[in-house]
Structures are given as C-alpha cells and as structure tokens.
Design goal:
Layout lengths: L1 E6 L5 E8 L4 E6 L2 E7 L10
C-alpha cells in the first residue's frame, strides 16, 4: 500500500506512506526526508503501541 498526501494550510508538508504487508516494511517520509523506517515481521495488527 502506498499513498501521498499534503497537509497544512499555512505551513504545507508532503507525507509519503509506504507499507509492504507481505515483507513487513513500513516507511513514512515527510518532505522527502525519512521520518519512520520500521520492519514488522508477522504483524497482524494495523496499529503499534
């Protein structure tokens, strides 16, 4: 699953989200810079606490 969205009205940012549920890779980039780089093996939950 991969999508991008723009957030903010006065201070705008672009957020890119990439999740490979088969391999377990999760990447979130904000304005082209990596904010989250995570690996989840055998995770059935869609949330992380």
């Amino acid at each position: 699953m991969e999508f991008s969205l723009n957030v903010g009205e006065f201070e705008k940012h672009e957020v890119d989200f990439y999740l490979d549920q088969w391999r377990g890779n999760l990447n979130i980039d904000v304005d082209g810079r990596r904010a989250v780089d995570d690996f989840r093996m055998f995770s059935l939950k869609m949330t992380k606490v």
